[in-house]
Amino acid sequence: MALDATCGQGYDSVFLASLGLRKLFIFDIQKKALEITKSKLENCSIELSFFELCHSKIDTVIPKESLKLIVYNLGYLPGSDKQIKTVPKTTLESVQTALDLLQPGGAISITCYPGHEEGALEENALVAFSKSLASSSWNVCYHQFLNRKAAPSLLLIQKHSS
Known about the structure:
Rossmann fold; 7 strands; alpha/beta
């Protein structure tokens, strides 16, 4: 099972659905994002569950240690109200919760967008949090462009297998 915690325009959900997993959970706070994603997954053969909820509420729906992969694509829905966006507080809550939802060997992928003020704060908070994770339980990798400060960055967190 996998989770797209912030489905946006559905591209990550389409990719996750192509992996052949049994079930995909799809979250977004915007109905429009869920509708866009549903339309892209009309012919999908795996079980899909859609939730118009904040990503900080994933533990209200998903059982502990049930997910192989969790994907976050932070920021705002392109072409919509930029005031509706992910924020450091709820994103940190969600990622902290997500750690308990991962199976051993599972991973979290987080794409950050530091090109706007809130996005930079969110990225900084996530990097600081990730640095605090015990290396005995977690592998953490952070990729950012050194010569393009406003470019998206990628944070990967993997739970050890044992």
